[in-house]
Design goal:
The chain is of the alpha+beta class. Strands 1-2-3-4 form a 4-stranded antiparallel sheet, with no helix packed on it. Helix 2 crosses helix 7 and helix 3 packs antiparallel against helix 7. The protein is globular and about 45 Å long. Keywords: ATP synthesis, Hydrogen ion transport, Ion transport, Membrane, Transport.
């Protein structure tokens, strides 16, 4: 039982054990059986919404992209590119599945990246970064890289992100 998730949720501290180590992106949105540390010991299902943790693969790549963007004075432009790509991954399941498919050749993926660069107007540095991730065999970490990029971007630009949840529809927004 080597897989272990520790974190705090609204219901208390949670320790989950699994049969193998799992990444936070694997658990996100999943129902897992956990032991919840409260007054007594109880087991219940919780849904992992987001696990914010240092990702040893994604974080260095994200920091490198932020450093490059800062150095080239294109931080806002590359941030826009990352937001565009993030939206594409979230909205287009077939695109995400194709990019993560190990059977699909890297040449086809590179061609798709080039097409997206032209159609979406991505910065050349962003497209080169995607190709580097592809060449290094780290494409499966791309969504985590986007998350780490966003966190570092917010830190460097002194930006705070707020999530607004309303029980009724907003008028005029």
């Amino acid at each position: 039982m080597s897989g272990l998730l520790q974190g705090s949720f609204a219901s208390g501290a949670v320790r989950c054990r699994g049969s193998r180590p799992v990444s936070s992106s694997f658990l996100q949105g999943q129902q897992v059986q956990c032991r919840v540390a409260r007054q007594g010991r109880s087991t219940r299902k919780v849904t992992v919404m987001k696990v914010a943790a240092y990702d040893p693969i994604a974080t260095p790549y994200a920091y490198a992209l932020v450093d490059l963007a800062t150095e080239k004075k294109l931080l806002n432009e590359i941030h826009t590119d990352v937001d565009t790509l993030r939206g594409l991954f979230e909205e287009d399941k077939s695109f995400r599945d194709f990019m993560y498919n190990p059977v699909a050749g890297n040449d086809k993926k590179r061609s798709l990246i080039s097409k997206i660069q032209k159609e979406a107007g991505l910065q050349p540095y962003t497209a080169n970064f995607l190709n580097l991730i592809l060449d290094r065999g780290r494409i499966e970490a791309l969504e985590n890289i986007f998350e780490a990029f966003e966190a570092e971007y917010c830190k460097r630009t002194d930006t705070q992100v707020a999530v607004l949840r309303l029980s009724m529809e907003m008028q005029g927004v």
